[in-house]
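Continuing the batch. This is chain 6 of the set; chains 1 through 5 are on the previous pages. Same settings as before, nothing changed between runs. Recording input and output for traceability.
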Amino acid sequence: QVQLVESGGGLVQPGGSLRLSCAASGFAFRSYVMSWYRQAPGKERELVAVISTPGGSTNYVDSVKGRFTISRDNAKNTLYLQMNSLKPEDTAVYYCNADRWPGGRYYFPWGQGTQVTVSS
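Output for chain 6:
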């Protein structure tokens, strides 16, 4: 049974940082491209960042380039998203999923996500 468990969200002031984690189980994590998505209130879910299987290649939506960093630890079956210089428009529920390069074609049902709120 596939499980994707996101954590690390919270309330942060503009300019602050958060590190999200995604604990994956039930599939061969190291064999899959992995991605972070987010969904803001009233908006469709959007792809934020994607990382290749060994982690050597990454891709980001333009709005987070230079601020967010996606990484993975295949030994721990865990995906990360380091978010710096956060802006109010980054407020959303963040989700992880296995994906197909270059992202946008996810494989599994969504987990519960983790809420990120950027506000003063």
